[in-house]
Design goal:
With 105 residues, this protein is an all-alpha fold. The protein is 76% helix and 0% strand. It contains four helices and no strands.
Length: 105
Amino acid sequence: MPLVLPLLLAVVLFCVGVYGVLARRNVITLLMSFELMLNAVNLNLVAFDAWRVTEATGQTLAVFVITLAAAEIGLGLAILLLLFRGHGHVDADAARDLLEREEAS
């Protein structure tokens, strides 16, 4: 299989992820879009590793990216649950207004 096909698929996945991050304000959609972008990076790593047959460095890096993605999703879902329990919504725009300001005495 030529190298161009997985790279084009990775570009499409990454562009869909960027569109999801820029256009949507739901936190769950933002997390899914970040996952799409990380999966596009993984696809690039594995495609270049298969193209260059010397060592399995791309696959090793892909495993590290998957581990990083799992940690990111765990932390993101924990923040999402705290946001929903405390305020009853998961809107990213409204979450910006949750910053605690010190009152002037």
